[in-house]
Specification:
By secondary structure, the protein is mainly alpha-helical. The protein has helices at about 15-55, 65, 90-95, 175-180, 190-205, 215-225, 230-240, 245-255, 255-270, 285-300, 305-310, 335-345, 355-360, 415-420, 430-445, 465-475, 480-490, 520-530, 565-570, 590-595, 600-605, 610-615, 620-635, 640-650, 650-665, 665-670, and strands spanning about 315, 370, 380-385, 385, 390, 395-400, 405-410, 515, 540, 545, 670. Helix 9 (about 255-270) packs across helix 10 and helix 20 (about 590-595) runs parallel beside helix 21 (about 600-605).
């Protein structure tokens, strides 16, 4: 017997060795599965305990700073008072927070969902009422609970969306009334309010209250300029005691240079201003195209003239920037040009059209010619009468989108005929499409949604309002600023983001302001403004690489090919198709992790001069807290936020931590 002695491996039967090996593998798998099960169970238990702790109200016996729990207390209904300490108060501020009637803190460090908003992009969409008419022959004129303020403290799990197809989000954000609502009475300011209120009454929906002054200031700056107000601008507006201060602010922002920068960015998305593949405008042409769009917006070029110049342009892509409209395409075939024209100026996707309708419209662009020159990448767009390489005297038989045929002489450019039809005052497509885009850009949702998928079987949620804005645009000689001003002055636009009605259709009938995440360009510009840092934008094609000056703002980038990893991460559109859906403003886990943990954001806080300047300006830690809130959130800190933040701001590092937390808050990341 060999008991007590090990058997050499060479003497073990191969079959027995195989069985032993199989037994070891089975034990290994069993131990691994047990380990995974135990780890998962512990994680679930810890997560449940963390949730219960972080959602219980703070009490004097459990200080949020002492225990690490989140500060969650009930906000006051009143709008927070504007309190800015003067020189005589600085010494007292360093010792104790001021005693005011400010609202209590909401959530300074909140455990909000990674994606608090998930806009339903497949919402019902509606088209202008009425049947298409023959313009040329007509002589009559046509008249979510829980969006939380504060930084997230760790990776979060996104909850599944409830099966509520009538609601506009998968999550129902609650925006606390003490910060976002005004105590002022809601009064109709113009016909927009009359039409919206009539519609809401017919639907049995209650409109939201007016937003607070702090909210209105931030909203107007972001919606009109794509820029955060500075701390001084916020303090001045909040403290201003004037019944016309909102009206005055609207007139002010409409004249600022950032207006042309931001709205040119919007139009460059639609017009596909991009140098490289697949559009291939090339850098010099893209720069010229952007400059023309920017100048047109800056000079308030009438919209009908804006469209006409694009549709009828001929010449060099370097010297006549408008011709790049015919080059910013993935194909130069007449059918492709007709598809882009219909999408851009009529808001229609031709894949839903009958083939004969697209073929009839394509004839208007059948004589668009392209030819190169001796200069690198220069191309001439022109009216080409040739057919099969020979001069043609054939009449062009085209059909307008409203099914009316037209004969065009051989020596006449068909594009001019189409531009006359499109920009006619009685055209039901032209004016309604652009005012619907503007409404969506400002209010957050179009009356026809999506704005570029207008179909005859999809009616607008408020056709009377759509008709009214279109008529106002025509009556104002296609002055887009006139329509923008009307919308901004309306009580509908100035509503709070806190819905008063839980009805599923409240959003699509504009019963409250629609919160949405900041555009990628706006977000990085805001972070750079706060930290007093710059960003690098470049394009690696073609060589030599294109680098823009460090002072370049993202909203003023002239070319869709010039980008950064931040812009791509946060959903900047590729500008390949001109569709509104190319821009993705949903907050994703990768974006949240970038804001929380990336060296990119950390370096801005560490190396930027913004906080050192802020600390030099403040007279104490409580004034530092208030300056941070004014700089980042465009409002004064509440009493509870001063108490909690004052302990953090005892050091420069603590002030940076507080600022980083605020930049990661939903209140900062979303326009509301």
């Amino acid at each position: 017997m060999n008991s007590g002695r090990s058997t050499p491996a060479s003497r073990i039967n191969p079959r027995i060795a195989g069985n032993l090996s199989r037994a070891r593998r089975q034990r290994l798998w069993r131990d691994t599965l047990i380990s995974i099960f135990v780890t998962t169970l512990l994680t679930l238990v810890a997560g449940g305990a963390y949730y219960l702790l972080s959602h219980r109200p703070a009490t004097p016996s459990s200080s949020p700073l002492a225990s690490g729990a989140h500060a969650v207390t009930t906000p006051s209904v009143a709008t927070p008072a504007a309190v800015v300490p003067n020189d005589s108060e600085i010494s007292s501020l360093t010792d104790a927070p001021p005693s005011t009637s400010r609202a209590e803190p909401i959530v300074l460090f909140a455990d909000g969902d990674v994606s608090p908003f998930d806009v339903d992009e497949a919402a019902d969409i509606l088209q202008p009422s009425g049947t298409p008419v023959s313009i040329r022959d007509s002589s009559e004129s046509k008249p979510r609970t829980g969006a939380r303020t504060g930084a997230r403290t760790g990776p979060q799990t996104r909850a599944p969306a409830p099966p509520d197809t009538d609601h506009w989000t998968a999550f129902d954000p609650v925006w606390h009334k003490g910060l976002y609502e005004s105590t002022l009475a809601v009064r109709p300011q113009n016909a927009i309010d009359d039409l919206v209120l009539v519609d809401l009454r017919s639907q049995g929906i209650q409109a939201a209250s007016l937003c607070s002054d702090e909210t209105f200031l931030r909203r107007v700056y972001l919606d009109v300029l794509g820029t955060l107000p500075t701390a001084n601008q916020a303090r001045e507006f909040i403290s201003k005691n004037s019944s016309t201060k909102r009206h005055d602010l609207i007139e002010y922002v409409l004249e600022q240079p950032e207006f042309a920068d931001y709205w040119a960015m919007k139009w460059c998305d639609i017009l596909r201003v991009k140098a490289e593949f697949p559009i291939n405008l090339w850098p010099q042409a893209a720069q010229a195209y952007h400059r023309w769009i920017h100048t047109a917006i800056e000079d308030n070029l009438p919209y009908d003239q804006f469209a006409r110049e694009l549709l009828t342009a001929s010449g060099s892509n370097f010297r006549v920037p408008q011709v790049n409209f015919y080059r910013a395409l993935q194909s130069h075939q007449p059918e492709s040009i007709a598809q882009v024209v219909a999408l851009t100026f009529m808001g229609e996707r031709t894949e839903n059209w009958p083939a004969e309708r697209l073929a009839g419209m394509s004839q208007f662009f059948s004589r668009v010619g392209y030819k190169p020159t001796g200069e690198w990448k220069e191309e001439i767009v022109y009216f080409d009468r040739r057919r099969d390489g020979k001069l043609s005297n054939d009449i062009v038989l085209a059909v307008f989108p409203n099914s009316m045929p037209v004969e065009i002489r051989a020596d006449q450019d068909p594009r001019h005929e189409f531009a006359d039809w499109l920009t006619d005052d009685r055209n039901p497509w032209f004016s309604r499409v652009v005012v619907n885009r503007i409404w969506c850009w400002l209010v957050g949702r179009g009356m026809i949604e999506p704005v570029d998928d207008i179909r005859i079987d999809n009616r607008p949620t408020n056709p009377q309002l759509l008709d009214h804005l279109a008529e106002e645009l025509v009556a104002a000689d296609y002055d887009l600023k006139h329509v923008i001003r009307m919308i901004l002055q309306s009580s509908c636009y100035q509503q709070s983001c806190v819905p008063q009605d839980k009805a599923g259709r409240a959003a699509e009938h504009f019963a409250f302001y629609h919160p949405r995440r900041l555009d990628a360009e706006v977000l990085i510009d805001a972070i750079c403004q706060i930290t007093d840092t710059t960003e690098t934008y470049m394009s690696i094609i073609p060589e030599p690489f294109t680098f823009l000056p460090e002072t370049q703002r993202a909203i003023a980038l002239p070319d869709g090919s010039i980008t950064s990893s931040f812009l791509e991460t946060f959903g900047r559109p590729a500008r390949d198709t001109g569709l509104a859906s190319e821009r993705n403003n949903r907050l994703t886990p990768s974006q949240a992790l970038h804001l929380l943990n990336s060296n990119h954001i950390r370096d801005k806080f560490k190396r930027g001069a913004g906080f050192r300047k802020l600390l030099r300006r403040s007279g104490g830690r409580f004034e530092t807290v208030d300056l941070l809130y004014l700089t980042i959130l465009s409002r004064h800190a509440t009493e509870g936020e001063l108490t909690l933040g004052g302990q953090l701001c005892a050091s420069e590092r603590g002030a940076e931590d507080l600022a980083w937390a605020l930049i990661n808050s939903d209140e900062f990341l979303f326009r509301h």
